[in-house]
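Milestone 3.1: sequence recovery, worked example.
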């Protein structure tokens, strides 16, 4: 299990990536909704290269990444308009 913090009041649990496919999250900081997203192989390679470079610049060996994008979902965005 992997716990994803989705704001002050919300947590989201999902199976570890070992049991699912590699993906990232869009996390609504207002309502706590979490959407899974899958990026293209090209984008994943670009992210890997950027993170490996940043990590190695401080002597850290990056082995894996998880990306959580924080913002507001469409429902919460339209409710604020």
């Amino acid at each position: 299990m992997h716990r994803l913090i989705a704001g002050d009041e919300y947590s989201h649990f999902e199976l570890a990536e070992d049991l699912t496919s590699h993906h990232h999250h869009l996390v609504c900081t207002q309502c706590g909704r979490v959407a899974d997203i899958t990026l293209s192989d090209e984008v994943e390679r670009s992210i890997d290269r950027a993170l490996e470079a940043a990590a190695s610049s401080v002597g850290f060996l990056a082995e894996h990444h998880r990306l959580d994008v924080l913002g507001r979902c469409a429902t919460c965005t339209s409710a604020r308009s």
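Residues 41-56 form the longest helix (16 residues). The mean pLDDT is 83.
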